[in-house]
Amino acid sequence: MIPEIIIHNSISLDGSLTGFMPDMGLHYSIAGSYNPDAHLIGADTIISGNELFGEGIPEEVNSDYEQPQRDEKLPWWVIVDSRGRLKGMLHTCRRFEFCHDVILLVSKSTPSDYITHLRKRNYRYIIAGDDKVDIKTALDLLSEEYSIKKILTDTGRTLGNILINLGLVQEISLLIHPLITGNKSYPMFSDVRANLNLRLTNSESYDNGCVWNVYKI
Length: 217
What we know:
The protein is an alpha/beta fold. Helix content is 25%, strand content 24%.
């Protein structure tokens, strides 16, 4: 059974995901209120996050090769990476104290040296799809193998739009910031292929001018 999928993003008034600095404290406070079993993340988000907030990739140490022993109530980080782009970078995710551990979603065409890399470091992974990751199959296996019932993703446009186009998203949570990015806009829904009818189920405003809207599809 495919888990419940919730998209949560911070956007500008004109729907852009970039071109401004979101209120990260409020963004993650709302994300945490969902109490998801897992966060679904694209490889691009990990790479850009390391570039934006990191100070270079630290060298691996022995503990990075072991699965962390953390509270089972903490959410998994489920990362889509069929091309093996995160080789040598995953330990930056595993070290995050509010992550139970990392699960990789890969495909049959994922480079074999990347699979070896994952095995040596005791990363859990699911193979689904021939070329790219078969998201539906992977989500079904996540539910079956790890009892994941609710997934939240705030990974950006590409993965979010894929999930919407596949009809897998039940809820969209938007933290709307009071600014317009104009010609710098990176519109959140530009790759959605069809009109969607949404029902507003919650709306809250904050002192910083942000509005949080929640929609059911």
